[in-house]
Amino acid sequence: MRNEIIIEDVKHIVADKLRNEATGHDWWHTLRVYNTSMDIAAAEGKGDRLIIGLAALLHDVADHKFGYTDADREAIITDILTPFQLSDSVIEQVIYIVNNLSFKQGKNKHVLETIEGRIVQDADRLDAIGAIGIARAFAYGGHKDRPLYDPEHSEDPDSDTIGHFHEKLLLLKDGMHTEAGKQKAVARHTRMEQFLKDFHSEWDGHQ
Question: CB atoms < 10 A from the CB of 204, how many?
């Protein structure tokens, strides 16, 4: 019961912090990652649910994309969790997951060592693909003033939102750690492939 109360309180804290976020890393993204993490944990029958839940809820409160460092995230997460009188071990494990979760343009080569971290990473990556992932990609592209597609700069996949699919999103299916994550990723990956096929067909005037 105590853990459930902590989770609910942290939900309110994070919702307040991310309420006006408009890049696709908002409260609803966080809640989806939390729900998917819980679903994967149940399917796998593994992991500490409190650590999984806290890491899922806190994974975007100080994201590197918005200028925060690992040290910033450690301080912010510690400030949020300390009043709940959690053990140092729980807080440290949550910080470890959050600081090593991100794709970071494919530069993050760290393999999460805990099942809790792998579950949350799978859930976060699942929300980046499929129908919702497509919508989030264009929301973030608008935030970064990226064009939808610029075929004249196709050699630079980071120059437009369609390039982001090739730079990151299409790579995520094969990076899933859990069996449940792998199963969920297949259908979402197929939706993205179909979207890109339709996009290029319409771009060229064939549809």
Answer: 9
